[in-house]
Here is the input.
Amino acid sequence: MVAVAASERLSPRASQAVFRALLDTLARPGRVLALPEPGPGPVPGPGIVPLALAVVGSPVAVIGDPDWQARICQATGASATSGADASLVAVYGTPDPAIVSRLRRGSSLAPENGAKAGLACRRLHEGGPGEVTLELSGPGIPGTVRLGVDGVGPAVFDALREANAQFPAGIDVWLVDERGQVAGLPRSVRQAVL
Amino acid sequence: MTVAELAAPAGTGEFGHLDEQSKREIRSALLTAVAVPGYQVPFASREMPVARGWGSGGLQVTLAVIGPQDTIKVIDQGDDAGVNAANLRRLIVASTGVADTTDARAASIIQTRHRVPEDPLAPGQILVLQVPVPEPLRGVERDMRELRRMHAEADYSKIWVSLYEDLVRNGVITQSTGYPVLVGGRYVMATTPIPRWDVPRLHQAGFLSLFGAGREKRVYAVPPHTSVEPLAFEDVPFQVERTEGAACLLCGAAEAYLVEVPDRHAWICSDSDWCWRRRSPDDETGGGMREAADD
Amino acid sequence: MGYAAARGGLDAILAAEELMRAKRDGGASPPLEISQLTERLNLAVDRVMGEAGLWAPDLAARALRQAEGDIIEAAHLLRAYRSTRPRLAAGLVTHADEIEVLRRIVPAYRVPPGPQLLGRTLDYVGRLLDDGTPSGPAHRPAATSGNGQASHPDHPDHPAATGTGTGGQAEDPARRSPARLLDLLRSQGMIRDRRRDDDPEPHDVTREPVRPGVPRSARLSVMARAETGALVNLWYRNILGPDGYIHEITLGEVRHGRLPVRVTHPVTGQPVRLGSVRVTEVEAIEDLDGPDEDRGVFDVGYGLCLGHNERKAIAMANLDIAVERDGGQSGLEQSVLMTTDGLDASGFLEHLKLPHYVTFRSMVDRKAAVRAAAGRPAPEQQATQQQTAQQQTAQQQTAGVTR
Here is the structure.
């Protein structure tokens, strides 16, 4: 094992703080929260999901950024794998609907096998609007709420809806914007592009 | 390269007893639980300093979730001062250094055995419930493979039939605590042995509920604003515990969960701190830990 | 009098802990040394390690001492300790042929391949309570090296231990690594061959909980850590009924010996031996007799546990092949997987001592509701009626006496 720069491996304290943000946003879809301040060094963006959750040997797919792929695997001891096999995923750059469609969905017997994915976007707007405005309802949401997302095309949300159409199988997603804000879309959420 | 360097990625659990890898595994399971409300997510339950069946699951959930900024409250049967609650609280505080309180309004995490606090909980508060038996269909099916299929296919006919037969045989549904509920319109879930009194308080709640079953190695969750409906028949409304004329001997409350003091033919609040605050609203020192006054 | 149960809960706990310490460490007898446990009560120490799933003789002895001899409590202490230890590496696969035997018997054959070694066993020692005078050399001061190695050369963990107490003799190496009966039977085509070409990862039961349908490696891991009494009892009630009918295997191998433990060195990448653990290993031969089974061959059940614990390993091997043959038809697999863990079972049993008054009040409420629905008197009314009836009876008796 090669020593990894301290800035990339999340400290236990930071891991817990990130987890709480992931938990809160998944439990209340539509809310936009600030991730904890990153330490010195490059900002992980969507990679924060595997960085905070992976353990040694976790199958992790980092798509669109080979540097972050290497950093995340070294920092956590995770194993690099394809999008179709990963339990934890980070998608950098502009996400492609085909990537979302390929992610692991689990099954009704084993919903826990569905992937948890961080998706990069440019900017999140709690309450909307955005380049894409989503209307959300379901567990965690009183009535309906809106979420504005810049930098992700509507086809991605169509692909996500399709991937989550056989609940309880599905994918749980966090959108992470360039300001370090996060919003959660659990597979239980009903989302429509306005 | 030393052993200490080899061990570093695991973390040595100096905060919150569990090592970092264990916490991450529990956290992943909790996130799945929140995404699939009411589904029992398997997790690799660690042996804890408390025995199986004594809150090891609730403890693991709390230790995975808690951070230095949190304030913890621990209750058993609604009482902060019970021996088991006191033991769990000291374990949590000793391994994390977080502040503790008996006031449910001031706690960010409340770990509880068998009660939901009487105070309405706010968004941002997390309720961690200790679960002895997470399987709501346990009474109607023993084979674990069949249970798994039933939940996967939402085939809940057996439990509906058993409730109906109960009603026909006894004139009322005799399920006492741990009443089965339908969560998010999809999963039948065990409400742990909380009384029926507390079941409606999980429905469309403002707070997040996390359930930990350490011995059975499952966690599950109910996000806020999620429907939690007791399995009941349209023409037979769900009944909570009620004794006509009963009121708390100490604070006079009738609209709270009361427990009996049989040799006095009297009742007292199960939520000891809520009761104490009703009697001493100006005292900020927290009542649950004090000796009850001689009455 | 306070109305809530156990006021000042923390004070009560601290007082209880002080009482525990005073009784355990007090009294007129000398304090218990770790070496006394590892040397004189080594079978208890072995059992604790087996049920904890952790090879650590000195720690197991400490746990046993702290738990005042309660094996399940001691195993709990050890497992909870294990929960705090980080994982550094995974052991490399080691063939059981590498076990350096201290004892080896083959009941299936009078003259099996490879030597038998009776070794240290109580099996043929008469069950006569001895008169209490210490036998053998005069007592010598206990001296441990403190790193898990026993000082007495007859102790199985002593580096020079031969298991026969006659150390120093030149020895045939085949004695320590005898040939396996299974290899002979295999060469004769008498055993159902279940060896495989792939190399699946074993199911780690401490990382992923088990449920019916898990692979055999999970079943074996669960049984290796199971409570000894639970496995013996489960075996017995399946042999005799009422649970089901499995039949007794014929023992092929019973071995007690030291198994080397190796990992990959983190820097050189080469295998390196860390030391050894002592295990009990059993290969049990099953006579296939089912209508869909091949009656021309035998099948094999396997048992392995830490320490010297033959009854556990034998029960394990018999249950292993029974579950394999049962193929999920009965509840046997579920019983083995879900009900044999000592910590789970006793923890859940003893949790009944926790306060349950919230639940009980709810049950009483349901009793009242059932009675109301049936037009029966409510519990309070019933109590009053009984009281009145008793008073009347008492008055009549008094009147009868004074008459």
Notes: The radius of gyration of chain C is 28 Å. The beta strands of chain C are 100-105, 250-264, 271-287, 298-306.
